[in-house]
Hints:
Layout: H1 2-10, H2 12-17, H3 20-39, H4 44-52, H5 56-64, H6 74-103, E1 122-125, H7 130-143, E2 145-152, E3 155-162, H8 169-190, E4 192-199, E5 203-209, E6 215-231, E7 237-248, E8 251-259, E9 264-266, E10 269-290, E11 293-302, E12 308-309, E13 315-323, E14 332-339, E15 345-350, H9 353-359, H10 362-365, E16 378-397, H11 401-420, E17 424-433, E18 436-445, H12 449-466
Amino acid sequence: MTSSKTDKKSNALWRFFSSVRLTIVLLIILAIASIIGTVIPQQGQGAVEFAKSLSPGWFSFFSSLNLFDMYHSLWFRLLLGCLGLNLIICSVDRFSGAWKRFSTIPRPDRKKPFEHLPPEQTFFVQTKTEDPALSIGPFLQKRYKRTQNKEAGHDHFFYGEKGGYSHFGVYLIHLSVLVILIGGLTGSFFGFEAYVNIMEGGKIDTVTLRKGMSPLKLGFEVSCDKFTVDFYQNGAPKEYRSDLTFFVNGKEVEKRSALVNHPIQFKGVMFYQASYGKLPGKKVGLKISNRANKDDITTLVVEPGRPMQLPGKEGQLIVVDVKEDLMGMGPAIQVLIRPSNGEEIYFWVFQHPQMIRKRLPGPMLRSPKFNASAFKPYTFFLDHLESAYYTGLQVNKDPGVNIVWTGCFMMIAGFFVTFFTSHRKVWVRLSEEESGTKISVAGTTNKNPVGLQRELENLTGDLKDMFSVKG
């Protein structure tokens, strides 16, 4: 056993990782790194905007350290691993001393604890020592652990203790930190952060990872049955929610609603209501006016990409592109005309042409691309766009969450044991004298001497009551 300890002390690597200074340094580095991770946006649109504000040199430096996804970086994981190894070795290195303090039972007939006792911890009983000795043993066994007694000459000694587990409170804290680190690393290695947009009435089984923008199969399907949004009077969104249905192997399993700040969970995957928007639907309302006859107006409902005959059979009309808001000028469609004779013509048709005339310069207005009358004798008008809401969901999975919570509860228990319990050892000595028996109460503790003094006073009072001693 001695050689084992000597080997550890002579091992430089063991000495390095068993150092409390290393613990302090690692905690300071992790604290600084966490502050950096809070200041610098991690992943998502915020990280993109922040990266755009950096110079090429700073962007290269930040990227090389993976500061835009710091908590998944190799160096941050190594820091956590070093802290975990440091805690394990520190605990192993010092555990034998704590176990010795816990397991060692002092001699019941020790006299040192009775030196310099205050008068209130001593009283007399007018009877021989054998009589009170028969009562004190069972009395102490009810209040303390590992009680012992011993007769030494004309004296009787009794010993008891409690709270020995308080020596291990700090190790419970160490273990809780390790559990939290394991939970964090589990989430870092096996979890993911992703997003997905689901059209109202649509269904998906794949999300897009924020890191690498690669697709990831969920293993189940999610449909957005209904999306609703409420607005304030100033037009700002007040609340929006998505009614989702989850399917496993094609069978409906559960229906849940996701709201802002009220995520839902399914099979360990969290769905957060993050955003919403509108996308063009499958049909476009179009009006065609014949300039030769102003009363001749044709109304059509066109599906993008599907050819339709012009009113006079002069050729085909195809809606090739649909924009909910083109360059901030409102809804627009791009129309392709394939005439029976002649070349194809492309042009944009806006729902609010008066806005176009205000926003675009004269040369652009004269361009055929922005002329809704480019194909004579017709003028095209965009009546309406069929549109549908989509819900933007943030999709996260962190299998280490429950492990982290377990570690947090263990840490609370460890702090309670460390700061609110103590290892108290109590001795009671019965000394035979001419007038009777002198009973003395003494004790020691590893912390909280005020609490020990209060307990010794209570114990003395209870013993006086047992033997009907007044004062």
